[in-house]
Amino acid sequence: MAALLVLCTNTPSMHAQQTEKAEAPAPPVVDLTRGVSFEVSPHTGYMGGSGTFGLRFSMNYGAFNFEIAGEQVIGQTANLYPIFVNAVLNLSTKGNLIPYGTVGGGLMLTTPTNTIGDETVSTLGVSFGGGARYYLTEIFGLRLEGKQYITSVQSERDQNDELLFFQEISLGVTFLFN
Amino acid sequence: MFERVSIRLVLSIMMAAAMISVSANAQGYHQNSLTLSVGAYAASGFGTNPYAGVRYNYILPDDRFFVEGSIGFSSLKSDVLETISRSQVFPSNDLYTYEFVLAYDAHPTGYVPYILAGVAGINQGGQTSFAGVLGLGKRMPLANFLGSDQLGLRYDIRDQVFSQQINNADPFLAHNITFTLGLQFYF
Question: Any idea which fold B2-186 has?
Fold first, then answer.
C-alpha cells in the first residue's frame, strides 16, 4: 500500500521531467548574435535581360551586415560591373531562415565588348531590395535576393541626365565563417 | 575511325572509373574538395583544344549533393580557320570559362554517374557569353592511396549551351563540350 502511494505521488513529477526534457529546444542552426561572423556568397542571376555572376563579402554584426559586392552583368554589346557597398538589416538572427532588407550605393562600370575604341563608362548608383538566406548547415546556405538598381546617365542627344532602372533577381550559396 | 576510337576510349575510362569507385572503401566525410582537371574543350565551330582548370566543391552532409565553382582555360585555335580561310573571328584565341553548378550524386559509391546543372560565363577572345551548363561525371575516392584517404579521381563531361553571334550574323545556339579527368583533393 505504501509502495503504491509512493508510486502515485512520484508519477506526475516523472512525467513533468520527461516533458521538460522532450520540450528542450534544439540550438538554432545559425545564431548571428554569438559574435561577429563573415560570409562569402557567390551567386548568379538575371538583370534586365542579361545573365549575371557575382560575389558578396559580408561582416555580420547580429541584426546588421556590412557588405561589399561585385558583379558581372553579361550583355550583348557591353558588360556591366556594379561594385557596391551595402547595409543589410537581418529580420531574424537565429534559425535556418534569415530574411533581410538591403540598401547600398556604389559604382556601375559599363565596358563595351565588341566595339574598338570605346572606353569604360562609370556612373554612381544606388540599390535597394530584399531577400532571404536559408542555412542547410552551420556554415552553408542558399541565398535568394531581389534588388532594384538606379543610376543616372547623361544622354548624348540633349546632354540631360536620365535615370535608369534595373531589376535583378539572384540565386546563390553562402558560406558562413565565425 | 578517330571518333570510334575516341568513343571506345571514353567508355573504357568511364567503366574503369566506375569499377575503381565501387571497389574503393567508403572514405570519411569531407566537406570540401579541390580538383585539378585537364582534358579537351570542343568550342562550337572552332574545333577541339586542350583544357585545364580548377574546381572547388562544397559537399553537403548526405554526400549526394554538392555545389561547385570552377574556372578553366582553353583556346579557340582552329587549323581550318588559320590555314584555309586565313581568318580570325575574335580579337584573340584566348578562351576561359567560369561555372557555378549544382550536382546530384544518387549513388556516390556506385556505378551511376552524378548529374549536374548550372550556369557559366564563357569569355571567347574578350567577348563574354552567359551559358547554361548540363553535364555528368563520377567521383572516385582512392581509399588509402599513398597512405591518404583525401585523394580521388573524377571525370566530367559538360555541355555549355549559349547564344552565339559572330560578325553580326543571326545568333545561333552553340554547344561547347568539355571532357576532363581530374585529381581531387578532399579536405
Answer: Porin (2.40.160)
CB contact under 8 A, A44 and B119: yes
Q: Do A137 and B98 touch (CB under 8 A)?
A: no
Instruction: Please determine, for residue A20, whether its predicted confidence score (pLDDT) is greater than 80.
Output: no
Q: How far apart, in whole angstroms, are the C-alpha atoms of residue B99 and residue B120?
A: 4
- The domain ranges of chain B are 2-186
Indicate the pTM of the whole model: 0.80
Minimum distance, in Å, between the CA of residue B78 and any CA atom of chain A: 21
CA A110, A111, A112, A117 torsion: positive or negative? positive
Q: Which residues pair with B179 in a beta bridge?
A: B40, B157
- Shortest alpha-carbon distance between residue A51 and chain B (Å): 6
Q: Is the ipTM of this complex over 0.90?
A: no
- C-alpha gyration radius of chain A: 25
The CATH number covering residue A104 comes to 2.40.160.20
